[in-house]
Specification:
The chain is α/β, with parallel strands linked by helices. The chain is 29% helix and 14% strand. It has 2 domains: 10-140, Glycogen Phosphorylase B (Rossmann fold), CATH 3.40.50.2000; 166-323, Glycogen Phosphorylase B (Rossmann fold). Helix 6 (181-193) links the parallel strand 6 and strand 7.
């Protein structure tokens, strides 16, 4: 009788948040992949991010896991052998630690917390860039991680719906981080008048906002992509990868521009770019009129646009676009693996 093959050890990562959150964790996911080459790496994250997870080249399989807002999920639907290693990239608190511990992993990697003293780990720093935060966690456990390893790969044969366009993305999941629609429209109108093709992207539920911007900019309805539903990730990634520039608030699409090495102008408020911003380089312009010594002066989930965000003028954005170099595309990263099908 032939013995069944010994199952691969399994490494579980919890990051059940949004698009930008997943993209800021790419360096940590890559570090875990490199340090555990024989493990099956499973990511507990919302199911709609499966294509994004595949594009990291680090994840073998996504376990659909989510909760409202930024809350910790109440359960992970886990089957089969217990995880050899569990890694908390969700946050810093007992709920996410205990959620992972309920699966009886051989080892849990997480930040230290008084409510879970059995888990050793480094101390949490409140004012730390989100990407660097998770690399520091892994480094404390002896796993080298490079915060600059942010690139993802996309389907090279998928055409952009608007190659070379300026992409305006006026939406955000909270009004505090939404620059006014009339200012986005003024930027679009000016850039279109100087010969740029301009498109407006919208997530699900943002159709009215996107069309308001398009009308104000004098663009046709066909210039709006998405709104009734999210733009499919393959199409969105092709659009951003081949864009001239992305103008966006502090939201997931800004991180996608970083991951695809596309020039961007990112508008910040009420949270400073030192916490969630793009790399400091000529390819990205982060506009911020706050105090760097107080990187969280307002509520990122507030009900009205933040005063620091409102301090950014149309002229500021147009000047930032002019400062950007034309994109040069590095050689594409080879995807190391595709997501495995559900067992």
């Amino acid at each position: 009788m032939t013995r069944p093959a010994h199952p691969r050890p399994r490494l579980l990562v919890l990051r059940a948040l949004g698009l930008g959150d997943l993209l800021t964790a790419v360096p940590a996911l890559r570090a875990l992949r490199h340090s555990h080459p024989s493990h099956e790496l499973l990511l507990a994250a919302p199911g709609r991010l499966a294509e994004v997870a595949a594009a990291t080249g680090a994840v073998d399989r996504l376990l659909p896991t989510s909760a409202p807002g930024r809350a910790v999920p109440t359960r992970i639907d886990w089957t089969g052998p217990l995880p050899d290693v569990a890694v908390d990239l969700h946050g810093n608190g007992a709920p996410s630690h205990l959620l992972l511990n309920a699966l009886s992993p051989g080892r849990t990697l997480a930040y230290a917390h008084p409510a879970t003293p059995h888990i050793p780990g480094p101390l949490w720093r409140e004012n730390e860039h989100e990407g660097a935060r998770w690399c520091r966690l892994l480094s404390w456990y002896g796993i080298p991680a490079d915060p600059g390893d942010q690139r993802i790969t996309t389907a090279q044969d998928h055409p952009s719906p608007a190659p070379g366009a300026v992409v305006l993305h006026p939406g955000a999941d909270a009004p505090a981080r939404r620059w006014p629609a009339e200012r986005f429209a003024a930027v679009g109108r000016t850039l279109a008048a100087t010969g740029h093709r301009v498109v407006v992207t919208a997530g699900v539920g943002e159709s009215a906002l996107a069309h308001e911007v398009a009308r104000g900019a004098g663009l046709p309805r066909t210039a709006v992509l998405g709104g009734d539903a999210d733009v499919p990730f393959t199409e969105l990634a092709a659009l951003i990868a081949q864009a001239r520039v992305v103008v966006v608030g502090d939201t997931g699409l800004a991180h996608l521009a970083t991951a695809l090495a596309t020039p961007s102008v990112v508008l910040f408020g009420p949270v400073a770019p030192q916490l969630w911003g793009p790399p400091r380089c000529a390819l990205h312009q982060a506009l911020w009129y706050g105090d760097d010594d107080t990187p969280r002066p307002g509520d990122a989930h507030g009900a009205v646009p933040d005063e620091r965000l409102l301090s950014i003028s149309v002229e500021d954005v147009l000047a930032a676009v002019d400062r950007l170099p034309h994109p040069t595309r590095p050689a594409p990263i080879t995807r190391t693996r595709a997501l495995s099908p559900e067992p």
